Write a sequence for this structure.
């Protein structure tokens, strides 16, 4: 890009759908929902902004929603096709299992499926022991990963979510971890799978898997539930992380300590869908003209290289800002699709989205 950049701050005039800059701000201004959950949060899966929060930063036991972090670490730290020899420490673990036995051999990816689809505690344990040597060392990796994602209120003590002193996280932290994890295509595919099968490699036995998330595939006001993870213990109550998608939009909700996680989740999602607005800027939609020096035309139109679509609560619209950084003029010849600047959408000082600005036409020398 040549020449100095001109910064132009423009007011945003668009149509919209929702979120808040911080949990505190969200909870201070949110409409009260009737929930049985001890904590809940709703975020935009693209920007991470909080659309709704109730006790969103309160540390609580997460039960098997823990396995979201276990699953993404398994995908990132191991090779999905590598063989895993199940340790006897993982076999026979309490709670939900897929009935692993010591000495079984599975592909790492299959154990990740067992943990995320059927919520197998033995699968999560086997992943941890395979990758780190024992659950304690793997938990250290979990905590490190959580901290790198900004989840400073979380402390994970095991890979499966069984009750343990100090094993706590928040609904907001789980939403952040899930948002990150859903950017991994294989993770996203696994948590969106209703049923499947995995095969033990040494004996050839086939184990069916059935997703524990009863909302998977549910349609709510045009949005479809595409994941992600349940969790239940007597201490944690009913927990659910859910992802809802429509076109290129994604909402991520978390409810913890619920007595009816499915009803609570649908209420939270419905709130976001009804009360927030969709900010939309189409790619290739002209924003302004830039002067062209010595060209066959005096100006050329520029537009965003990518579509911009954001979810925003109505109360935050006055604080939304669009900034354009653009070259003051271009020299001919100028090719169609040339990058000549960028556009940012901000809420306060937080950049929600940015994209390059490109020329829409060829301009030869005049």
């Amino acid at each position: 890009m040549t020449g100095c950049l001109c910064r132009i701050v423009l007011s945003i005039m668009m149509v919209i759908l929702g979120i808040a800059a911080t949990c505190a701000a969200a909870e201070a201004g949110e409409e009260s929902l009737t929930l049985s959950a001890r904590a809940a949060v709703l975020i935009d899966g693209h920007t991470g902004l909080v659309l709704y929060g109730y006790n969103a930063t309160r540390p609580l036991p997460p039960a098997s929603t823990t396995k979201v972090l276990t699953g993404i670490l398994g995908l990132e730290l191991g090779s999905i096709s590598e063989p895993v020899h199940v340790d006897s420490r993982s076999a026979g673990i309490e709670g939900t299992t897929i009935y692993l036995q010591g000495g079984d051999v599975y592909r790492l990816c299959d154990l990740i499926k067992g943990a995320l689809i059927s919520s197998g505690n033995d699968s999560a344990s086997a992943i941890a022991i395979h990758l780190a040597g024992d659950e304690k060392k793997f938990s250290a990796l979990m905590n490190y990963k959580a901290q790198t994602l900004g989840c400073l209120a979380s402390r994970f003590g095991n890979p499966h979510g069984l009750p343990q002193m100090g094993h706590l996280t928040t609904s907001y932290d789980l939403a952040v971890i899930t948002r990150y994890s859903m950017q991994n295509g294989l993770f996203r595919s696994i948590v969106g799978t209703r049923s499947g099968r995995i095969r033990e490699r040494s004996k050839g036995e086939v184990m069916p898997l059935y997703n524990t998330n009863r909302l998977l595939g549910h349609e709510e006001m045009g949005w479809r539930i595409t994941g992600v993870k349940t969790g239940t213990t007597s201490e944690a109550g009913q927990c659910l992380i859910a992802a809802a998608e429509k076109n290129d939009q994604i909402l991520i909700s978390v409810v913890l300590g619920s007595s009816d996680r499915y009803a609570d989740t649908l209420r939270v999602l419905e709130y976001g869908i009804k009360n927030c607005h969709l900010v939309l800027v189409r790619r290739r939609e002209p924003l302004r003209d830039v002067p062209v020096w010595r060209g066959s035309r005096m100006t050329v139109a520029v537009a965003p290289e990518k579509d911009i679509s954001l979810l925003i609560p109505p109360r935050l619209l006055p604080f939304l800002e669009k900034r354009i950084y653009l070259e003051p003029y271009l020299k001919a010849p100028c090719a169609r699709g040339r990058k000549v600047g960028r556009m940012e959408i901000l809420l306060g000082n937080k950049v929600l989205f940015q994209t390059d600005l490109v020329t829409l036409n060829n301009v030869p020398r005049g």
In short: The longest strand covers residues 223-233. The domain at 23-275 is CATH 3.40.710.10 (Beta-lactamase). The longest helix spans residues 261-275.
